[in-house]
Amino acid sequence: MSAPTPHPGFGASPERMHFAWLRDGELRIQFCGDCEKGIFYPRSLCPHCGGEELDWRNSPGTGTVHSATVVRRPDKAGGDYNVVLIDLDEGVRMMSRVDMLAGSEAVRIGQRVRAVILPQDDADPLLVFAPEARNE
Amino acid sequence: MSDESLRGSAAILGVGTAGCGDASGRTETDIAVEAARNAVRDAGLQMSDIDGLITASMKNPMPTMRLTEELGINTSYVDASCTGGSSFLLHLVNGAMALKAGLCRNVLIVYGSTQRSGVRRSVIADYRRMVDPDVFELPYQPFNPPSSYALVAARHMHQFGTTRRQLAEVAVASRQWAMLNPEAFVRTPLTIDEALSARMVSDPLSVVDCLVTDGAGAVLMTLAERADSGPKPPVYLLGAGAAHTHRQISSMPDLTETGAVASGARAYAMAGLRPAEIDVLQLYDAFTINVLLFLEDLGFCPKGEGGRFVENGTIGPGGLLPVNTNGGGLSCVHPGMYGIFLIIEAVRQLRNEAGARQTAQSETALCHGNGHVLSSQVTAILGSANTL
Fold first, then answer.
1. Portion of chain B with pLDDT greater than 90, in percent
2. In 3D, which of B90, A131, B70 has the Cα closest to residue B79?
3. pTM for the whole thing?
4. What share of chain B is helix, strand, coil (3-state, %, to 5)?
5. In degrees, to the nearest 5, what angle opens at C-alpha B157 toward C-alphas A115 and B260?
6. Of B154, B200, B248, the CB nearest to A109
7. Residue A86 lies inside a defined structural domain of this protein
8. What's the pLDDT band for B60 if we cut at 50, 70, 90?
9. Are residues A52 and A94 in the same domain?
């Protein structure tokens, strides 16, 4: 499946475009043509200035853990897992999780991470993160 | 104050509760109706005097219709604005505007939910996930609402050195107040060490950092100029302000500063009061971290100092600043949306009828409501007749 033609403003659903690019193995982040700020999650109007000329730029997917929690779950249901907020270097924040942690390593605030796109069988691809050092 | 201001324009004549804690065997309508009846009786009025109805529901998108039907009232004004747990503070503003505009004469604000014994919060959450998902958060399975508040608490700890022991101080203070309140649901003693060793839910928050119960509450409000006719001293709406900043936690502009900064500033400006002039606080404690955030954002301590501020029982019984004197959402009652109980406890304190938990000489009370995941913030300042 290929991504729809980039269309600033109204038209193709920005949410669907995001996932279509992830299916193609690309992470792209919206930027406002008026105020130049990054935007996440993707939408139709710039939430910073109301600008309508939004374009999508390729992202290297590097960022920093802004906050983190561990959800406690019984082992038989799959065990504990982390949920994090990541600040991408472009200046946008997103929820995700950090995979590929070594043994007993805990995710920590301030940790450098890099994006990994995980294809899913019956759902949109999942954007997760791994410690930067282990994912170069 | 100009004639346009809402300051002092409306007064609360009656309050009522029902089914607080565990209302097994009863529906949310059953307990909402009982709370409404109790509030009308408390005001010395008849149900037929009610011509304005405001409510909010977590499971029914048109809740005014059922309650109008159940209460048998003829309403000229209804409102079902829902901003989560802050809704009922917003309803004070909407009700005062409707009264001032002459749209109704006596307005009843009502809420009831049986989220503990009846349709559980998880069922409602599953339904909402299906019809209106947060597609950029849901795939990571945050256990919400706890995980969203946990992310805020973890950031607050990282940024300001706040500790789990300081969060435990909030849980212990609420429990100590609850032990003085016969209506509170959880009244067993709690120590800091017990709070610290409680089972974790979503780090750094544990089972003592939140509570879910059944419960219903109602507040009857009328125009100030008609407020002297009731059997109880009227409690006046002195100021109010709202601020909405986001829906999902990943969109919150700053994890450690809430919209309470703006909603509080608006409420203080309308009331003409400063934080130091507030006698008793009711802060929506959906989770322990909320109390620290709101003490900071509403000007009771500097940003980042909330944890140190609550140490050594500052906000508990006998402390410097009485906060959540009914035991709060953490120990008294938390039926999904707690906001109406902030108002009810403030009224009881200002009327000097809070029994063993009564604070000395309360003339002003600040109620701060929080909705969803710190998404909506609404502040209301109430006062006795002396403050008009």
1. 92
2. B90
3. 0.96
4. 40, 20, 40
5. 95
6. B154
7. yes
8. confident
9. no
Dist CA B127 CA A36 (whole Å) = 38
Domain end: A39, A58, A77, which one?
Answer: A58
Angle (CA) B276-B279-B283 rounded to 5° is 95
- The per-residue pLDDT for range A44-77, each reduced to its tens digit, is 999 999 999 999 999 999 999 999 999 999 999 9
| Same-domain status, A33 and A67 | no
Q: Do A95 and B152 touch (CB under 8 A)?
A: no
Tell me the pLDDT tens digit for each residue of B296-351.
999 999 999 999 999 999 999 999 999 999 999 999 999 999 999 999 999 999 99
- Please give the Cα distance from B335 to B35 (Å, whole number): 14
> Whose structure tokens read 């003339």?
B363
Look up residue B148 and give its amino acid: S
pLDDT of A90 reads: 95
Domain of residue A117 covers 62-135
Distance (Å) from the C-alpha of residue B306 to the closest C-alpha of chain A?
19
Whether the per-residue pLDDT at B4 is higher than 90: the answer is no
The span from the first CA to the last CA of chain A, in angstroms, equals 27
For residues B95 and B81, give the distance between their C-alpha atoms in angstroms, rounded to a whole number.
Answer: 11
For residue B388 the two structure tokens come to 């008009």
Contact B289/B168 with Cβ under 8 angstroms?
no
Residue from B147, B151, B209, B249 to probe the interface with A (highest A Cβ count within 10 Å): B151
For an interface test with B, which of A83, A111, A117 has the most B Cβ atoms less than 10 Å from its Cβ?
A83
User: Count of domains in chain A?
Assistant: 2
Distance from CA of A96 to the nearest CA of B (A): 6
Nearest-Cα distance to chain A for B175, in Å, is 24
Read off the tokens for A130: 């791994």
Concatenated DSSP letters for A71-93? E---GGGT--EEEEEEEETTS-E
Is A31:A20 a contact under the CB 8 Å cutoff?
Answer: no
Say if the Cβ atoms of B154 and A126 lie within 8 Å. Answer: no
Cβ contacts of B204 on chain A, cutoff 8 Å: 69
Q: Which residues of A, range 39-58, sit inside 8 Å of B by Cβ?
A: 40-41
Question: φ and ψ at B353, to 5 degrees?
Answer: -125, 30
Instruction: Confirm if B12 and B349 have CB atoms less than 8 A apart.
Output: no
